[in-house]
Each structure stands twice: as C-alpha cells, then as structure tokens.
Amino acid sequence: MEQLVASWYNGRSLPETYVLPLEIRPGKLNVPVSTNIIPVVDLGGHDETAIIQQILEASQEFGFFQVINHGVPSNLLDEAMNVCKEFHAMSAKDKAVQCSNDLNKNCFLYTSSQRYATEKYHFWRDSLTHFCHPLEKQIQFWPEKPTRYRNVVSKYTTEVSKLGSTILGLISKGLGVSPEHFSNGLTENPKMIVNHYPPCPDPTLTLGVPKHRDPVLINILLQEDDLCGLQVFKDEEWIDVEPIPHAFVVNIGYVLQIISNGKLKGAEHRVVTNSNSARTTASFFVSPSDETLIEPAKVLVNTSSPALYRSLPYKDFHSKFLVTSDWKELEKFVRTTSA
Ligand code: OGA
Ligand code: NI
Fold this sequence. Notes:
It is a single chain. The protein is of the alpha+beta class. The protein contains nine helices and 14 strands. An eight-stranded mixed sheet has the order 1-2-10-7-12-5-4-3. It has a four-stranded antiparallel sheet with strand order 6-11-8-9, with no helix packed on it. Strands 13-14 form a two-stranded antiparallel sheet. The protein binds N-oxalylglycine (OGA) and nickel (II) ion.
C-alpha cells in the first residue's frame, strides 16, 4: 500500500510530491475570509415550509448548510468521532490488516486521492471507505479493530441514513418532485468515508483535498468541534465552514445538481490542513446503486427548462469521475449536446 501520511509525517518537512502548483495552492491562510455565513438550519422547528425554504435557498446559493436539532443523539456523534480517530491512530500494520487497499473492494483504505498511482502530486489525507447498506451484508467488511467500530458506526450510519431521507424529503417538497423519487435506487448505496488529515509541516503549500464536487446526492459530514479545514468556493472566494458542536454539515453533490436539472448547486469545496493538530471527519455519501439511471427529474424538464443533462447509469458517471481530474471534461460528459 502507498504509505499512509499518518505513518511517516512526524518530524518530516513537506516532501516535494506534496507541493502543489501555485494556482491551486492555498497560499496565505489566516487572511480574513467571511466567517459564519454558511446558513444554519434548525430542523427541530415546527414550520416545515420555512425549513424547506431555508434549505432550498442555502442549496441554491452556497450548495452548503449546517443542520442543528437534527435528532441524532450527541453522545452517538461523540462516540462515532472518537472511534474514527481511534481507527486512524492505529499502527499502519493494524490498519492494513483491517481493510483492503483494493479500490474495488467493499471496504478499503487509501491515501491522497483514489488516483494515487497516476496523479502528478499528492494530497495530505488518509481515508477509510466502506459501503453501509444493507447493513447485514456490509458490516462483515468493516474494520474489526477498534473493537467498538462496528457497533458504534452501525448505529451512527443507521441514524444518519434516516436524517438523509428527511433532508431529501424536504428537498423533494421544495423542488416539487415526488418524495418517492429519492426512496429507490438513487439512495440505495450510501458510503462512509473516514478522512484523516495529520498535522502538516506547511499548510500553505498543500491541501488535504483539492477543489471538488462530491459525486453523490448529498454528503452529511461530521467534523470536529474546534478545527476548521473545510472551505467552500463561492464568488471566487474561499469561505471556512466553521464547526458548530454536534451539528452536521450538509452539501449538495453533483448527482443532485443533475436530478434537479441545475436548480441546486453541487458545491465546490476543498480541505486545507493545519500544522498543529490532526483533523478527522466522517462523510456520509448518499449515493445511487451502480445500475440506477441518473437524469433530471421529469417534472423539472419542459420546453422552457430543457434537460441540461443526459441520462446515464450511475456507474458510468462514477467511473468517469474517478479518472477525470478536469472538471470541465466531466461536465461535458454529462451534459446534453444541446445544452
Ligand atoms: C469529502 C470532503 C470534507 C472534510 O469527503 O468529500 O469534502 O472536511 N470532506 O473532510
Ligand atoms: Ni467533498
């Protein structure tokens, strides 16, 4: 396996292969950026119409929002975060024994991006990835160490999966799409990604994850209480997504942009590193099964709003996503020729 960053970073200066070209380097960090402007949606409120409106506005303007009073117990969030940190704190040997390094397996561990072998430069991240559904089938592939991993993460993914259905239910109402639209193959294959960004010798020269859109419907992200790292690209500026304890960060992925025929925005974001502390996050990718067709919802397509995207099986979209680092090329691949 390529060497996990966590195995060698300590005491080293930043290797050349992690120094990014000037145009994508974060450069000066700590310059004032707009803070606290990502909308926060209180899901505990009783005015559903108002909640839907806030979610839709945030999804159109930023492609990002945070949710509070979301119903997932705080102690479960703490336990999940702790067990994710414990996983990445294990020895490289233990981690390797617990999962495969084969990207086609149900559970695997990789470093940088899923293109390590072909990428020109690397990124400062180690990630554990596994599928979550159906739980009875998938859990056997998850790490057995830390010993609490399966127990805690199965409770966590069950709860977050319900939250995903709630959020997509609200989005479907807002878009005027049938609520059943998202209860079939489009959300059948959720995936958990446990990201770990060790302390970095020079955060100005490299990134944890470069600018990207998530290849899914939505991502529900758990981040640590006191560490920034996730940034959203809006109006040519990077905006920090400041942690709110026990909140989730939700972002719209490119697949939902396609389904909504461009009404919602698959947000561009990246992850910066920091030199003081390791940062761990857990992404819950709400994603389609391989054979499911992804295409604009029929009710959103008419003569004044023609389909911007063609219809294709999710697996074709995802394979293209994995090999394409150029965003424009991927857009071209999914757009209709007339759009
Ligand atoms: C991702 C992602 C953000 C973070 O997993 O796609 O953007 O802060 N993660 O780890
Ligand atoms: Ni992402």
